[in-house]
Amino acid sequence: NLAALCTTVTPAGELIGMDRPTAARLRATHLPQGAPTSPALANLAARQLDIRASGLARSVGARYSRYADDLAFSGGADIDVDRLLWLTSQIAHDEGFTIHPDKTRVRRAHQRQQLTGLVVNSWPAVPREEYDNLRALLHNCITAGVAEQNRNDHNDFRAHVYGRIARIGETNETRRAKLLSMASQVNWD
Known about the structure:
Elements (H helix, E strand, L loop, with lengths): L1 H5 L13 H8 L10 H8 L1 H14 L1 E6 L2 E6 L5 H14 L19 E2 L2 E2 L8 H17 L1 H4 L7 H13 L3 H11 L6
Antiparallel strand pairs: 1-2, 3-4
Helix pairs in contact: 4-5, 6-8, 6-9, 8-9
């Protein structure tokens, strides 16, 4: 059965020291956060929302996309944003969701448009400061050593750094090559 494949119960030993309400919730059958099934389940849950939001976007000359629980509309400056936000809120409510007003952003062409951690103005890219911070970290690894830079005590700091390089490299091959070149100069031992 699908529910049994997608849910879990946290073992009692993992709940030691946890507050009672949280432990009680985790003792019961629940959907685990970050499971491989999560995106598929989110897509199933939001299917009707997506259909209706896509239709709304087409009707106003915009494009709609969603990643997990982040909804995004993009289009020209002539779109009636207040009407779009109100209608989206109504659709979300009808489909059993709530739009969080503090997380709603309207960004114009001249502003930084960020979605799911990427700047998406012209093309998707990791924010410049994330790249600069990783370059600085690699520079410091080369000059001062790895131990000094692993401030969060990652078990496998090298894998952590290479994961960050991969994230940046997904959207920019030039930055990826530069970071890999720097990483190859680090003494990871």
